[in-house]
Amino acid sequence: MKEDLSLKRDFFLINRIADKDLDFTRIFGNVNPVYLEIGSGRGEFIVAKSRQNLQINFLGIDVKDKRIKTILRKLDLQENSNVRLLRLFVDQNLERIIPAASLERIYILHPDPWPKRKHHKNRLIQDLFLDVLSRLLIPSGDIMISTDHREYAWWIKGIFAGREDFCLES
User: What do you get for the CA distance between the two ends of the chain, in Å?
Assistant: First the structure.
């Protein structure tokens, strides 16, 4: 029997967005800090992290509808009431939707490494994108990135090392 996701979709999914800031107080119903996960994938991280940190609001973004549906199946209305999902292609236009200085933390877990040199221009971690993320974070906010691709890890460290608005920690 197929699970009816309509109730979860109505609760967890932010369906309509315009080119204006999201109102996190209205969306979450509180003024708790907001953590963003870019590329929520199958949802293991956001589901577990939100259950461990009920005092934090989590916004998960993914571009693929199939991934959003997979995450919805894992979310529980009581245990994950601090999660909202947004189906969105993530690029520099993110700051047209998310208010400036509104995020305490951004998670980027295993972004596509685009290993071929000719494809490096497609990598998510680029200076222009980090400019946007810098504006979205509160002054003491941080970005947590993980990758199991050694060459991409060095690339990411190099990008951050050349910036004055971020402090690189291992």
Answer: 46
112 in active site? yes
Residues of the chain short of pLDDT 50, as ranges, are 1
- Give the pTM: 0.91
State the CB neighbour count (10 A cutoff) for residue 137.
Answer: 21
- How far apart are the C-alpha atoms of 8 and 74, rounded to whole Å? 10
Catalytic residue among 23, 76, 91, 112: 112
**Pairing mode, strands 103-109 and 34-38:** parallel
Residues 6+ apart with CB under 8 A from 121: none
Q: Give the span between the Cα atoms of 147 and 124, in whole angstroms.
A: 12
pLDDT confidence of residue 1:
45
CB atoms within 10 A of CB 106: 20
Residue range 152-165, pLDDT digits in tens: 999 999 999 999 99
Bridge partners, 21 (sequence order): none
From residue 107, alpha-carbon distances to 1, 26, 66, 73 in Å are 34, 22, 21, 21
Please state, in angstroms and rounded to a whole number, the distance separating the CA atoms of residues 11 and 84.
8
Let me know: does 51 contact 114? Beta carbons within 8 Å.
no
